[in-house]
Amino acid sequence: MQTTTRSALAVLPPRETWEPIQAIRRVHDRKIGRWMPHINLLYPFIPAERFDEAAPRLAEACAKVAPFETTLVEFRRFAHSSGSATTWLAPEPKPAFVALQAILEACFPFCSDISSRQPSGYIPHLSVGQAASTEEARRITASLQRAWEPLRFRVDAVALLRRGPATPFEVDRWIRLGS
Questions:
Q1: Which is nearest to 121 in space by CA: 153, 98, 89?
Q2: DSSP-assigned letters across all residues of 60-105
Q3: Of these four, 6, 109, 142, 143, which has the most CB atoms within 10 Å of its CB?
């Protein structure tokens, strides 16, 4: 099945928690205009025209996962082959996100890009910026970590996201966790 970078399945922090994240992103993230704060689970995902067809499968899979609490505590970084890096917040507990992502990927095995990119598999992360080098990313993450107050929220749904060719992502619908 075809996938597209114009859709995603993600966990979104509640809107009332966005400001500390967005304050960082306004300085460091060139993609702030395209994405809201999010933790991708499946990306790229199926075209939005297929969401109605996919929703029952997603609801059945999500019903098997109990809502859980998460905390954004630590800044980390991904180094890229180009020499650049991405800075991100690590949601804890990681195993809850890994389990959720695996259940969803099992429903859509052709949407395995984010689990197959890293040798260790899926790494849940909330991107907050890009850096020209890994050294710059190290400095940024160290500076951000010193000032960061951990952010806790409940994960009780996943968001089906869509965007147009020149528009930012928006929530198409929510799929609740738990029965």
A1: 98
A2: HHHHTS--EEEEEEEEEEEE-TTS-EEEEEEEE-HHHHHHHHHHHH
A3: 6
Instruction: Identify the pLDDT of residue 118.
Output: 73
What is the model's pLDDT at position 137? 97
So what's the pLDDT on residue 54? 96
Domain boundaries, the chain: 7-176
User: 175: which residues sit within 8 A by CB, 6+ positions away?
Assistant: 55, 58, 59, 62, 157, 158, 159, 160
- Of 105, 73, 100, nearest to 88 by C-alpha is 73
Q: Tell me which fold the domain 7-176 belongs to.
A: Cyclic Phosphodiesterase; Chain: A, (3.90.1140)
The tokens describing 102, both together, are: 């695996």
The predicted model scores a pTM of 0.96
Report yes or no: 10 and 144 within 8 Å, Cβ to Cβ. Answer: no
- Distance, CA of 10 to CA of 164 (rounded, Å): 17
